Amino acid sequence: MLLAIHGLGSESGAMRAYLEGAVPAGVRVLAPDLRAHGSNPLIGEPDDFALEALAGEVADDLERRREEAGDGSPVSIVGVSLGAALAASIARSGRFPLDRVALVRPAFTTEPLPPNLAIFPLLGRLLEEHRPRRAIAELHRSGAWRAIAHESLAHAHGIEEQLTQPLAAERRIRLLEIPRNVGYRPGELRIPAPAVVLGSPRDPVHPLHIAEAWRHELGCRMLISPARDDGEAAMFTWFRQQLGSFLVGIR
Fold first, then answer.
1. CA–CA separation, 91 vs 85, rounded Å?
2. Which of 80, 131, 179, 239 could be stapled to 117 by a disulfide with Cβ–Cβ 3.0 to 4.6 Å?
3. How many angstroms separate the CA atoms of 54 and 34, rounded?
4. Is 248 exposed, middle or buried (0-12, 13-18, 19+ CB in 10 A)?
5. Residue-averaged pLDDT of the chain
6. Residue ranges per domain, the chain?
7. Taking the CB of residue 135, how many other CB atoms lie within 10 A of it?
8. Mean pLDDT throughout 30-42?
9. For residue 251, what pLDDT is reported?
């Protein structure tokens, strides 16, 4: 079985861009919507957005699905951004036999609210104070958004979309609380299965130095995609090719 975990402010359907055509035939894929994302109606309190709590909910869902299907095969995991942090947590939990783990564009570090994630609480505050059109105007005035736009217009436009998603204001707690999490503690990022880190250049939200830190902690391979600003289609084609190669032979 393959567990596919999306990123902060995204939803399960976004995993198709990474995995379409990359998963071997016959492999069951579980791609859940995290709390306060996609079709998941749960919102909750700040403690519900601790990485351990989110990972626990995903793991509980995975365990239920495996029991219902009578599936005792090893679990492979692909996690993107926030999903990479949750994938690592689930992999280290010992709850499931593991096959392999792919960590795509990791964004969380050993510190709470690292600079690359500081834009998200700003978005949460703007959603609390303004309607979407005014919130976007205020976002464009911020130094944080301008710094992202200077490095990558594609990622800056993606940040804007966080303000116009359905139920964005009602779900703003996810943007306020999730970036406060520590992704891992030094020396503790160990996954008992083959792993790979996939990073992207010129990505201010998922900087390469963070992917490199994950690779160093894990002692695994790291591969670097084309930049999103050089063509989003080419970037996702690269991810599908690399993930397809990594996932050959999973069950």
1. 10
2. 179
3. 7
4. exposed
5. 97
6. 2-111+182-246
7. 23
8. 98
9. 87
Among residues 51, 59, 100, which one has the least CA distance to residue 78? Answer: 100
Q: How far apart are CA 231 and CA 150, in angstroms?
A: 17
**Bridge partners, 197 (sequence order):** 103, 222
- CATH number of the structural domain 2-111+182-246: 3.40.50.1820
pLDDT tens column, 188-212: 999 999 999 999 999 999 999 999 9
Tens-place pLDDT, residues 124-181: 999 999 998 999 999 999 999 999 999 999 999 999 999 999 999 999 999 999 999 9
Contact 3, 87 (CB under 8 A): yes
Integer Cα distance of 9 and 36 in angstroms: 9
Nearest in space to 159 (alpha carbons), one of 197, 122, 199: 122
Closest CA to 172 of 15, 7, 36: 36
Name residues whose C-beta falls within 8 Å of residue 178's C-beta, 6 or more positions apart in sequence. Answer: 8, 49, 51, 54, 82, 120
CB 231 within 8 A of CB 125: no
Measured CA to CA, the distance from residue 107 to residue 199 in angstroms comes to: 10
CA dihedral 178, 179, 180, 182 (to 10 degrees): 100
- Overall pTM surpassing 0.90 (yes/no): yes
Q: Which of 35, 168, 19, 154 has its CA nearest to residue 80?
A: 19
